[in-house]
Amino acid sequence: MLDFVQKNSFGTIVTTKKEKPIATQLPFGLTKKGDDYFITGHMAYGNPQWRTFETCEDVLVMFQGAHSSPSFS
């Protein structure tokens, strides 16, 4: 999984505000400190999602690999 995240660092972070999901797509970094790994990134101050980090119970970060669209003939 660590290799996948490093190769596919563009992800979607999902939090909630008043039980409604808020999602933002961002580039992420993966940092190791001791035995622990941390996902890091930067969110613009103008994005209201950053204010949810202190109050939401869970944070979900999703990473996707490359994909292609099927060609219908």
What does this structure look like?
The model has no long low-confidence stretch (mean pLDDT about 90). The protein has 1 helix and 4 strands, in the order αββββ. It is globular and about 50 Å long. Helix content is about 10%, strand content about 45%. It has about 70 residues and is mainly beta. About 5% of the residues are buried.
Mean pLDDT: 91
- The number of helical runs is 1
Mass-distribution shape: globular
Q: Measured on Cα atoms, how large is the radius of gyration? A: 15 Å
Sheet-strand content, in percent, reads 35-45%
Number of strands: 4
Number of spatially distinct domains = 1
How widely separated are the two ends?
A: 36 Å
* Poorly predicted spans: none
N-to-C order of helices and strands:
HEEEE
Strand order of the largest sheet: 3-2-1-4
Fraction of helical residues: under 10%
Pfam families: FMN_bind_2 (PF04299)
InterPro entries: Split_barrel_FMN-bd, TR_PAI2-type
Organism: Bacillus wiedmannii
Protein name: FMN-binding negative transcriptional regulator
Key descriptive features of the protein:
single chain, 73 residues, mainly beta, 4-stranded antiparallel beta sheet, 1 helix, 4 strands, 8% helix, FMN-binding negative transcriptional regulator, TR_PAI2-type
